[in-house]
């Protein structure tokens, strides 16, 4: 092994927990002398060198990493957290999760908590309300004063001169690919369910722009009445909008759903009204829906490696902790278009 050997590797070789290895490295807490010698011998044998992160921990600095998310019940975060946890576990950190319910006061309170808890760093997905025009100067001043390594996850905070590390999705490109696939399948009347741009700002704007650009590039007409803006970011609201559209009898031959909240609402309406996909209306969604797995692997989607995204954001934060002076990085996570048949144009739907 080389100096990339982790605490988890040492623990596995020694047959002990990561906490025991951490106590040996930090020379803190009780460890049996026999166990201590065994761990030290293994470390010497693999030429293990604690990273600057580990050295910081040995100086009694915090091993806490905070994660601030706006919607913990969203399946997106469940997968991302798996990746974050795996990297933090390997490096001897403990994860602290704060959920803000997309509420600006809760968001600010979470940031205040992070600043007081002496965390080593934090990963942050801002609440929807913090768009370019709605973030107060107080927020910017407070955010800058925290002075703790931070990486933004999936959403941007935009301000002239403001630079921070971020791991983002390729929202524009992915939405363009999904819409293009529907067009190539023969659809000319395409609708979209997109999170409200005034709330989701960066994400919604990029996904809407990708959809709109594909429609324009292929010379199709844009049907504004079939573009639904889910401004409350709830499955119930998406369901009510989809149900109203489908019940009217005037609806597109295909629908692109811009996130899994929109997709869940869309399918709730579909099942309640007895519609079939793609026989009555075709579909492509952003991210896979675990709730649909029982119906078979037949719903086309944009698939992101969300666990990999979590590993990427945690790794970037650790690099920032090790080198606080490094330049800000922005990493884009690509999406893979998986066509499974639900995008098809069925006979009689032209």
Q: Could you describe the largest sheet, including whether it forms a barrel?
A: 6 strands, parallel
Structural class computed from helices and strand pairing: alpha/beta
Strand arrangement, largest sheet?
2-1-3-4-5-11
Mean pLDDT: 85
Order of helices and strands: HHHHEHEHEHEEHEHHEHEHEEHEE
Question: Spans with pLDDT under 50 lasting ≥5 residues?
Answer: none
Number of strands: 12
CATH superfamily of the largest domain: Response regulator
Helix content percent band: 40-55%
Based on Cα principal axes, name the global outline.
elongated
Would you mind describing this structure in some detail?
This protein is an alpha/beta fold and 350 residues long. The chain is built from 13 helices and 12 strands. It has helices at 7-14, 18-26, 33-45, 52-58, 75-90, 104-116, 137-146, 171-184, 197-200, 202-217, 235-247, 260-273, 306-322, and strands spanning 64-69, 94-99, 121-124, 150-153, 165-169, 190-195, 227-230, 254-257, 282-286, 301-304, 330-333, 335-338. The strands form 2 sheets. Strands 2-1-3-4-5-11 form a 6-stranded parallel sheet, sandwiched between helices. It has a 6-stranded mixed sheet with strand order 7-6-8-9-10-12, with helices on both faces. α12 links the parallel β8 (254-257) and β9 (282-286). α5 packs across α13 (306-322), α8 runs parallel beside α10 and α11 (235-247) packs across α12.
């Amino acid at each position: 092994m080389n100096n990339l050997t982790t605490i988890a590797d040492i623990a596995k070789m020694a047959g002990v927990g990561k906490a025991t290895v951490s106590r040996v490295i930090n020379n803190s807490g009780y460890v049996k002398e026999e166990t201590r010698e065994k761990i030290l011998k293994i470390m010497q044998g693999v030429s293990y060198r604690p990273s600057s992160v580990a050295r910081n921990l040995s100086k009694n600095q915090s091993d806490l990493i905070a994660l601030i998310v706006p919607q913990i019940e969203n399946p997106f975060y469940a997968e991302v957290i798996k990746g974050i946890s795996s990297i933090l576990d390997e490096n001897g950190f403990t994860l602290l999760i704060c959920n803000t319910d997309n509420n600006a006061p809760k968001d600010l309170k979470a940031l205040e908590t992070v600043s007081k808890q002496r965390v080593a760093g934090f990963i942050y997905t801002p609440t929807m309300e913090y768009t370019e025009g709605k973030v107060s100067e107080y927020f910017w001043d407070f955010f800058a004063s925290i002075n703790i390594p931070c990486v933004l996850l999936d959403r941007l905070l935009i301000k002239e001169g403001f630079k921070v590390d971020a791991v983002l999705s390729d929202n524009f490109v992915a939405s363009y690919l999904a819409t293009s696939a529907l067009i190539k399948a023969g659809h000319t009347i395409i609708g979209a369910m997109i999170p409200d741009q005034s709330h989701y700002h960066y994400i919604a704007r990029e996904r809407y722009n990708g959809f709109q650009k594909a429609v324009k590039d292929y010379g199709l007409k844009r049907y504004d009445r079939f573009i639904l803006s889910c401004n409350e970011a709830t499955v119930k609201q998406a369901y009510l909008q989809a149900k109203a559209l489908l019940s009217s009898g005037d609806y597109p031959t295909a629908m692109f759903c811009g996130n899994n909240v929109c997709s869940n609402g869309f399918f709730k309406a579909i099942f309640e009204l007895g519609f079939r996909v793609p026989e009555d209306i075709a579909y492509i969604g952003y991210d896979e829906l675990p709730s649909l797995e029982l119906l078979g692997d037949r719903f086309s989607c944009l698939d992101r490696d969300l666990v990999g995204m979590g590993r990427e954001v945690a790794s970037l934060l650790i690099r920032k902790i090790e080198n606080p002076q490094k330049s800000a990085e922005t990493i884009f996570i690509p999406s893979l278009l998986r066509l499974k048949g639900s995008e098809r144009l069925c006979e009689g739907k032209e």
